[in-house]
Specification:
- There is one protein chain.
- This protein has 68 residues and is an all-alpha fold.
- The chain contains 2 helices and no strands.
- The protein has helices spanning 7-17, 45-55.
- Helix 1 (7-17) packs parallel to helix 2 (45-55).
- The two termini are 20 Å apart.
């Protein structure tokens, strides 16, 4: 699966629902971003994120629990 819109926003929102707050590391840490071409495909991530917000969904079955 290639990176797409919403991944950082989604995890930040879900953590917030269970009380984990995001802290900015501006001027504290160095951040690197790996260059990648803009994806041309249309993804459903915006709709998935909106459903997450509307229904206050904090858990996803597509996470670490899949590893066995």
């Amino acid at each position: 699966m290639a990176p797409a819109w919403g991944e950082d926003t989604d995890i930040d929102y879900r953590f917030g629902l269970i009380g984990i707050k995001n802290q900015s590391l501006k001027h504290i840490a160095i951040q690197y971003h790996t260059y990648h071409k803009t994806l041309d495909r249309v993804s459903g991530n915006a709709e998935i994120y909106q459903k997450t917000v509307d229904e206050k969904i904090w858990y996803t079955p597509f996470g670490i629990n899949q590893i066995k």
